[in-house]
Amino acid sequence: MNFLNWRTDKQLLEIINNESLDYDIRIKAQEERMRRRWPSCKIPGCKTFAQHTWATIPVCQHCKETLTTEQLDYYAEKLLPEDRTLIYSIAPYMPWRHQDLVVNP
């Protein structure tokens, strides 16, 4: 169990700013604070914090750029519908998509 998860945001800030504490503890407090503020990226296999959204779905900066490239390539007719793997991987999270449209790997 993480000893930081029961602390308030104010307590986490105090830990982060207290230079007399061990560096690793301060980093863990910063990570816990970020985990609370931003959810994790919903792209399968990506473990980074999601600071952006794509179709109301939390994604990280790198995945958002990849999704944008995939979308532009699709609409420029460089990709076939079945090649849109990233967009189909987050389709279950889209509120307007039906589950039957999701391509299962």
UniProtKB/TrEMBL annotation:
It comes from the Bacteria. This is Uncharacterized protein. It comes from Paenibacillus wynnii. The lineage of its organism: Bacteria, Bacillati, Bacillota, Bacilli, Bacillales.
